[in-house]
Specification:
Number of strands: 13
Number of domains: 2
Largest sheet: 11 strands, antiparallel
Radius of gyration: 24 Å
Number of helices: 5
Oligomer: single chain
Strand content: 35-45%
Structural class: alpha+beta
Helix content: 10-25%
């Protein structure tokens, strides 16, 4: 009985400690991180054909307009990079909102905000094809590599610096963003298509107005909130390896009547979705109380009359 009581007490203390340390305000279920982005990218013109096939150097040579964000960068071969601002983090299973832009929130024991802003960069085009028809020309590009860093900041992003004025995006530096506290970081992971096993990002757009969509799988590798989002819970991708989240975006270019700030090529909106499994604080508290109560009752029964 003494051993049993000792084990129960240890379990109660352990569960109580975990609950106190995590102070969880996000619950198990599917989550959605809603994002707004400004992107710089590479264009390949409107002549039909395969511009490059599984070769980044060939893609560089075929570029009609190289991304401005690669000029003078630590990675001059990068083709897509930009800045982002998180609008909302929500548990879509329960409806719980853990973060709202401008007001901040708490995810686990991590207090974030009032703004979450970040940088994504180092996506290098690997395979590109332009097809033309009655509706015009469409470019489909597969990129490899790529990563991102998301920071908790006191101020929102400022796109007026453009893709080069705020720092080197491919070094994950941008004025007003990279100086914050690192909330989450990671990389784009292969598996977006079986056509190119190394591809980490798929994008397709109509060359007129540069409007289209993109998608890719994400792995979270660091930051204060890594423990809550690094779950490998997204359905197995085409490489047979689970990812942490799926990113999907839609984008469009500026117009003469509604131009984009500085040298950004497109503005986009998207979401990263995944699943998170965490212990419920209420369950932890009940388990702790039950174990402590069992110990107290047993102690009373052992007292001499």
């Amino acid at each position: 009985m003494t051993k049993l009581l000792t084990a129960c007490a240890f379990a109660a203390l352990t569960i109580g400690t975990v609950g106190a340390a995590q102070s969880l305000t996000i619950t198990s279920g599917n989550y959605k991180i809603t994002l707004d982005n400004y992107d710089a990218g590479t264009l390949y013109g409107s002549s039909a054909g395969i511009k490059c096939n599984g070769n980044t150097a060939a893609c560089d040579a075929a570029a009609f307009l190289q991304s401005t964000g690669s000029v003078g960068s630590v990675n001059p071969n990068a083709d897509t990079m930009g800045i982002l601002s998180v609008a909302l983090i929500q548990n879509v299973t329960t409806g719980q909102v853990s973060f709202t832009k401008g007001t901040g929130g708490t995810i686990g024991s991590v207090t974030v905000g009032p703004y979450l802003t970040g940088i994504f960069a180092n996506l290098q085009d690997h395979t590109v094809e332009v097809t033309c028809g009655l509706t015009g020309c469409t470019t489909t590009a597969l990129a490899q590599g790529g990563g991102f860093k998301l920071f908790s900041n006191a101020i929102d992003w400022n796109p007026a610096f453009g893709s080069v004025g705020g720092g080197d995006l491919n070094a994950y530096t941008y004025s007003g963003i990279s100086g914050g506290s690192l909330f989450l970081e990671g990389n784009f992971t292969p598996g977006v298509t079986s056509v190119d096993p190394l591809a980490t990002y798929l994008t397709s757009y109509n060359n007129s107005g540069v409007s289209g969509n993109g998608s890719g799988y994400l792995n979270f590798t660091g930051g204060a909130a890594q423990a809550f989002f690094d779950t490998n819970s997204v359905a197995t991708n085409l490489t047979g390896v689970n990812a942490d989240a799926l990113l999907s975006v839609t984008f469009f270019g500026g117009t003469s009547t509604n131009p984009l700030p500085a040298d950004w090529l497109v503005i986009s909106a998207g979401q990263a979705t995944g699943n998170i499994e965490v212990p419920e604080p209420g369950s932890l508290a009940l388990a702790t109380l039950a174990l402590l109560a069992m110990g107290a009752v047993t102690q009373r029964r052992r007292r001499p009359v």
